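ok so i was messing around last nite and threw this chain in just to see what happens. nothing serious, just curious
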Amino acid sequence: MRLRNVKNAQEILDSCAFLIKNPKEYKGKYKDLFANNNPICLEIGMGKGDFIKQMAQNYPNINFIGVEKMTSILARAIQNLTPCHLPNVKVMRVDALELQQIFSCEISTIYLNFSDPWPKSRHAKRRLTSEIFLNIYDDIFKDTKTIIQKTDNVPLFESSIISLTNHGYKIEDISLDLHQTPKENYMTEYEKKFAKENIKINYLKATKK
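result:
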C-alpha cells in the first residue's frame, strides 16, 4: 500500500504546528515540549497516522510521538491529524537509526505497526526488531522497556520473537490472530485493509526490566 507523492509535502511539514522540526535540541527535554510529565509513547513508522490519532484521543494523559522518515508519508499523516487538534501528539521526520541522538531515557512504550519486513536474509539488520535497533531502544527507554508489535508478516513476527527473547525481553502477551482475540485494539490503515481481506494479524507485547 504505497503512498503517491503528496503535492506540496514539504510545505505541509513547514506549516505544521505539531511537527518537531529540530528534535535533537529536545533530547532529555521532551517533558518541557509537552509541558507535562506524562508518559511518552513512540510509534516508529506511523503511516497515515490512524493509530496514533486513535490512541491520543482515547488516552489524553499519555503523550505520543510519531516517527516517519519519508516526507510524503509524514505529510499525509499531518493532514490526517491536523483537524483533530490533539495537544498530546507530536511528529517528526527522522530515521529510526537516529533515535539515540534524539531521546535520552524518555520513552515508555514503542509501537511497531506493520513495519517493513525486509524479507531477504541480507537485509535482516534493517528490521526494526533486529539487534541493531534493540540496542538503540535500550538507550531511549525510561524505565521498563515495552515494545508492542503488530504485523501480517509471519517470518518477521517469528524473527522478532527470537530477536526480542535473545535480547532479554519477556513476551508478556501474544496472538496469532489479533482480530479474534478479545483485546482493545486501534487499527492502522494497513490493518483495516487486511481485516477486510481476512488476513490474520500477529501481535505481541514484550517487556524488559
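not much to say yet. The radius of gyration is 16 Å.
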